[in-house]
Amino acid sequence: MIGRLKGTLVSKQPPWLLVDVAGVGYDVEAPMSTIYDLPATGKDVTLLTHHAVKDDGVSLYGFLTESERSLFRNLLKVSGIGAKIALAVLSGVSVDAFARQVQAGDVAALTRIPGIGKKTAERMVVELRDRVDGLASALPGRSADGSQGPRDAQSEAVVALQQLGYKPAEASRLAGKAAAEGDNAETIIRKALRAALGG
User: Are 48 and 2 in contact (CB under 8 A)?
Assistant: First the structure.
């Protein structure tokens, strides 16, 4: 099993990263909470990983902090939650905020995350309430280095929002409202998620 990658960050195409480790390129799927804090492409990066082997292939998920990876793994243990929803949770809310929402039984806040309905939110509260203690880390999301201005940041943001569970029309609307002159894709995604999730 692959538990950690240390190498050069070749590309960032949210939610996908390409990391070169001694000449081998690893495709890694990561939540926006990790992508916000990554260095610029061409720089060294170390990711904690979750290696999933399924019937239809192998997937690798990457995180900058142990609290993110722990929450991801705990979410996968909840009935009805797969990797896509677990990534959406981490992309839309900090580990601290999620822990508070679960402990408070705030189903309404949890249902604002794409892909989570009322029943799933209620299951999360019941199944995770005892597990979220100690997961929180005092690492709020920060903007990543935006020096890599993408060719069409808004289009990249729309694609990423769709991969996080938003319908195409909703993803376009959110990205369109969030985009400002000079924003890169990561900035647009963060502003769109903040608006959608009431943050």
Answer: no
